[in-house]
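Listing S7. Sequence submitted for prediction.
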Amino acid sequence: MIQMDVRADQRQTQTLSPRLQQAVRLLQMSSLDFGLMVRDTLGKNPFLEPDDDIDDADEPSDSGLEAEALSRNEGDGLESQGFDEHSTTAQNESADDGVESDRDLWLADAASGNRKESDGETSALDMMVAERSLSMHLHSQLNTMQLGERDLTLAHVIVESLEDDGYLRTPLHELIEHVVMDPPVELVELQIALKMVQSLEPAGVGARSVAECLELQLHEIECVEMRAFAQIIVAEHLQALAARDVAGLSRLLDKPPAFIESVCDRIRRLDPRPGWRWGSSHVAYVVPDVIVKKVRGEWQAQLNPAIVPRVRLNQVYAELFQRHRSAENAEMGAHLQEARWTLRNVEQRFSTILDVAQAIIKRQRHFLEFGPMAMKPLGLREIAEEVGAHESTVSRVTNNKYMSTPRGVFELKHFFSRAMVSANGRACSGTAIRGLIQDMIEAEPGGEPLSDAEITRQLSQQGLVVARRTVTKYRQMLRIEAVGRRRRHDA
């Protein structure tokens, strides 16, 4: 007979609350994405308002930023950036009127025609560059051609069937089913329309394969002999071209390797994705989160004011709500709690970023002084112990965060590298070895480039034991060509 009983077990487990999970997710966001999130919350939460007290005229200058960096190190926190929940809400009414009028101009409906500002000048919206898509570019060319109505319609159908990269991947016989004309469209008519589209700019548009796309661009090769052999290579030996099999192509075409190499280089300069030249493309802008400067002989890190959201608690609304709070407006209470949590998260996020950045430059000051070869090995644990955080927190902080230094703009992860022990027992970072490899290649004599094996030997002579495959990996990371291609370029 089965017996059932009830037991009480006590266990300790680590769980993350939804708030903490969201805080972790926000910490590893880039500052651009984080700013978008804060602005989205600002539009939804009535207890948050933009902190417009800091206008452009009051932006900190270089000396002001340096003073701000010093004050941060003394423990002033982020209150000077507008995170104080008890800041005053008094605003200059005339300034607000100016802001609203400017905002109205920017948000004006562009479809309503040219709008003039109060002084009679053209609105800023009218001066914005309109993006031009591939289909718009091709349609405008077709409209200037003297074509019959039927041929023009079929050419427009072909253009609308192209993909973003300019290829036609829908078979012509399938397009016939979607074109209703009287008399019915024949396949030969669509083929003629495709030829018309393929004659347009950019060259290579309307191709149905990579080989056809390249063939449509071969007329750009001025040398007749090179063009003829390029036609053969593209039509019959495209795989050998992709594999860079110059020796094999030289035997097949009975031409010197140097000539075949020049033909292949010319083919590679053609555009296999001509449609990508047109239309909007996503551009990932890098905005440094931290600016590093030398202040009174010491390297100091300071937040970039451009990435810090200017937001604060609307104290008037908060006090009115607290005065008339009741069980019926629980939703407003949730908004107030979210507003306060957002401000705390903003302050904690940028305070942690600043602490981590300061700890990094404290250990990598020689890099700032002397360059990549002075980079020291650095691990996440060292920084975590310095700032009093967990390694996972430091890892999230260094994701998608950038530091502007006199040596350039680098991701925070750039300053972390594994230690490589030299022959004398001293540790050396991979970044320093990459810098040394780059200096070796830049100093190599003309016509006598260094092979990866020779670079490995020279590093060994300097007491750095590095495998040849590691040298190859570092050279590829530096985007430096192999010894064979460098030798041909020198020749």
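Caption to Listing S7: primary sequence and predicted structure tokens for the chain studied. The chain has four domains: 21-82+288-413, 134-198, 210-277, 418-490. The chain is about 50% helix and 5% strand.
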